Write a sequence for this structure.
């Protein structure tokens, strides 16, 4: 075996481009939780600057989260599944 072949045999393989070990896959669970958080924060901000009636939207999102927790079914996760978003390993919305 030549020196060049021996050196290439001991070098570590290059990692594929893209996600590193710290980058988590975007899954249904993560998207549903992110959207719920964004809706809650947005509705609280709108209630503060525009009208207190936006608290009803906050209550609606909370009621949907409660329903999802009790029944293990979520409309948003069903829509995302049909769009081809991969399911996560967490127990919850993606089942």
């Amino acid at each position: 075996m030549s020196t060049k072949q021996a050196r290439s045999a001991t070098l570590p393989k290059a990692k594929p481009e893209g996600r590193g070990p710290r980058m988590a896959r975007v899954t249904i669970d993560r998207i549903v939780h992110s959207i719920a958080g964004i809706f809650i924060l947005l509705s609280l901000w709108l209630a503060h600057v525009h009208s207190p009636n936006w608290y009803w939207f906050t209550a609606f999102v909370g009621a949907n989260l409660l329903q999802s927790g009790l029944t293990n079914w979520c409309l948003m996760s069903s829509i995302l599944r049909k769009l081809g978003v991969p399911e996560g390993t967490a127990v919850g919305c993606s089942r």
